[in-house]
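Protocol step 4 of 5: obtain the predicted structure for the target chain.
Materials: sequence only (see below). No template structures provided, no constraints applied. The aim of this step is simply to have a reference model before the mutagenesis design in step 5. Sequence pasted as it appears in the construct record:
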Amino acid sequence: MNTQLLGLYFLPIGILAMSAAALWQVYVMMSESYTLNRYQDKQLVWVVTALFFSFSLAIYWFAPNARKKGLLFVLLGGGGLLLYGLARMWLPWRQ
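Step 4 output (structure tokens):
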């Protein structure tokens, strides 16, 4: 199998994997943010600031139940980025 054919497979699979990672991130944010109520008011300001500036990646640090779910986000996001990058490199119409 040549690399151009692999690139044609990897391009849509990579895009779908990154989209699934984004949807998974939204699910984790919505389902795990209830655990943040254990912080006091002054601590919660810093938690909310970290969540705002890191596009909700801080949820994996502050919510202990979400840490296991972060592995799927890393696999989908990183794998999708790798597949997309390989497809862009292998396909002939790259710029």
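Step 4 remarks: The first helix runs from residue 3 to 32. The mean pLDDT is 87.
Proceed to step 5.
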